[in-house]
Specification:
heterodimer, A: disordered N terminus, B: about 200 residues, mainly alpha, Rna Polymerase Sigma Factor, Chain: A
Chain lengths: ~170, ~200
């Protein structure tokens, strides 16, 4: 920071009388709620990590380092593919056997397991519902109510579609 | 992240750093610290309360939205005063208000406009007589300041009312240091001349 004055004197020392008058002048304040009005128009910055990433990207593009970065990424990708293809070629027989086992035995076994589980679950639910099942009259009443509910829904939907969009809004 | 208690005692640079990290309390602290000096400067320059408030708001919005571009080697106060002064000068150029008197602007044709363009001088004194004298003196000084050229006015307000250094004023007003000294010297001479009748 720089010095208080170029002469090393304060305003009061430079012209005491005038300074006394000027210093006594009112400090005006803006109206109530000024701070909130300002804050309503201020855009606060994004989180630091996002800004750093953006800045790094901008910097890379501006300084031409983007090409270097892209080059390194491309080379890395190429090496990865080369390694993967080499691995596949090296262990082709084992990989083929593994795939055959998966589609011949593993997958059907998994499918059977899942279907068996679902069937068992449905059976359990059926047993529970059967044990708790209401009498014939109650069942008929429930069915009737469900039907009436369905009719009410259909009517409501029809009315909604029929009404002009302004009324719907 | 900074708390309200931390920011109230921190330096401007530190508060700006927190603001750059997105801390709302830091933004609010900067508004709280500078709203009065900035508004006072602009109000004394344009002499229209509503306009001064709009310009002050614009100044803060501009500064806070560009807070990431603030360079810490400069004083924050210089930066905000520079933007405030530019806003006031632009407005004066647009509306040619620089010859306004304390009683109201030249464009003021209705009592409301006269009231809006008159500076409201402070009234905190001990007795009615002292109050009247202080008001008279305050009005006379405000009138004398109002008669100064805008660039003299900005310099003298920043030097004697806001207590800023010459360097800071030069930074804020984008003027060479020598020019600032000359302006302040001339402004003092003009003010003394204007206030001389009061001493008699």
């Amino acid at each position: 920071m720089r010095n208080m004055t170029v002469y090393g004197r304060t305003p009061a020392e430079e012209d005491p009388e005038l300074h006394r008058h000027l210093e006594a002048l009112t400090q005006f304040s803006p109206g109530v709620g000024f701070e909130n009005r300002v804050m309503a128009r201020v855009y606060r910055p994004a989180p630091a990590w996002l800004r750093t990433a953006r800045a790094a990207g901008r910097d890379a593009v501006e300084t031409g380092r983007a090409w270097t970065v892209l080059g390194v990424l491309s080379a890395g990708s190429l090496v990865s593919w080369a390694v993967a293809v080499g691995f596949i070629l090296e262990y082709a027989a084992q990989i083929g056997a593994g795939l055959r086992w998966f589609f011949g035995t593993g997958l059907p076994y998994a499918w059977e397991t899942v279907t068996a589980y679902v069937a068992e679950l449905l059976a359990t639910v059926y047993t529970l519902v059967s044990a708790w099942a209401p009498s014939g009259g109650a069942l008929a009443a429930a069915a009737a109510l469900s039907f009436l509910g369905l009719v009410a829904c259909a009517w409501g939907l029809y009315r909604t579609m029929e009404a002009p969009s302004a009324v719907r809004a | 992240m900074a708390s309200a208690a931390d920011v109230s005692t921190a330096s401007d640079q530190q508060v700006v750093e927190w603001a750059c990290e997105g801390a709302e309390v830091a933004y609010r602290e900067l508004v709280r610290r500078y709203q009065r000096p900035v508004f006072s400067l602009i109000y004394r320059m344009v002499r229209d309360r509503e306009l001064a408030e709009d310009l002050t708001q614009e100044t803060f919005v501009k500064v806070l939205n560009a807070i990431e571009r603030y360079r810490p080697e400069f004083k924050f106060s210089s930066w905000i005063f520079k933007i405030a002064n530019n806003a006031a000068i632009d407005q004066l150029r647009r509306r040619e208000l620089d010859t306004l008197s304390l009683e109201g602007g030249p464009d003021a044709t209705t009592p409301e406009q006269v009231e809006a363009t008159s500076l409201q001088v402070g009234d905190v004194t001990e007795s009615p007589l002292e109050e009247m004298e202080a008001r008279e003196l305050g009005s006379a000084i405000e009138q004398a300041i109002a008669r100064l050229r805008p660039e003299y006015r900005a310099c003298i307000i920043m030097r004697h009312v806001e207590g800023r250094s010459y360097d800071e004023i030069a930074d804020a007003l984008d003027l060479p240091l020598g020019t600032v000294k000359t302006y302040i010297h001339r402004a003092r001479a003009e003010l003394k001349q204007s206030l001389a009748p009061l001493k008699e």
